[in-house]
Amino acid sequence: METIPVGLWLPPQDLLALTNRVGEALHATCEIRSQRGKSFREAYMASRFALYRGAEAVRLLPETGQHTPDFAIRLHGAELIYENTEADNPLLHRNEAYETTCRQFGIGEAHPVTEPVMISPDAYAAEIARLVAKKVAKRYERCHGLLIRSNTTWIEGLEDPPLDWWRAACAGAKARFEECWVFHHRHFFPVFGPVV
User: Fold this and answer.
1) Rounded CA separation 41/15 (Å)
2) Whole-angstrom Cα distance, residue 27 to residue 40?
């Protein structure tokens, strides 16, 4: 299986193509949500974000033993560094649910029909605020922005939360970051920072 390089600058479209190939291999072994799939998930978000921003290049950052952000983009000649995190419905165990469903498909079982687990807007905002507070508490040597991947699709009464809702949920990020972005339903939302 191919691996995703750490520390190597790549054009965003090249990293996304590699990430897609690695993701197919990880999915075949039901490991996308495992620790082995962590670099895949980070590279997917980094490459998608770099493409969205029109960056010339993107790279995953190596762990240093200190608090290290996840990726950097080169935009108009400047290197911008970002931390990436994933927000989930705390009522679900997404990793376990993914692996169970994936393995059932692998052995030919029918997909279990389950009701979506809704979360209230207040509960999800609180979960996002909790994640933001964890990232703000880290002492990064250098980090420009926070990128939050929203994995929850069933927010009660809010199919696509308005930008003001995201801004309220992510308000704590202003204490540490110059920018904050959310990726929800395959779209990026600039919570604060530069307007694209």
Assistant:
1) 12
2) 11
DSSP helix/strand/coil, 57: strand
Question: At 163, which helix (H) or strand (E)?
Answer: helix 163-169
Cα radius of gyration (the chain): 17
103-143 tens-digit pLDDT: 555 555 555 556 667 899 999 999 999 999 999 999 899 99
Q: What pLDDT shows up at residue 43?
A: 96
Identify residue 130 by its one-letter amino acid code: R
Pairwise CA distance, residues 72 & 15, whole Å: 13
Alpha helices in 54-146 (DSSP H): 94-106, 121-137
Tokens, residue 169: 């949920």
Contact 2, 22 (CB under 8 A): yes
Q: d(Cα 194, Cα 196) in Å, to the nearest integer?
A: 6
Assess whether pLDDT exceeds 70 at residue 33: no
Task: Decide if pLDDT at 169 tops 60.
Answer: yes
Question: Of 184, 179, 137, 135, which is closest to residue 162 (Cα–Cα)?
Answer: 184
Q: What is the tally of helices (H) and strands (E) in the chain?
A: 5, 6
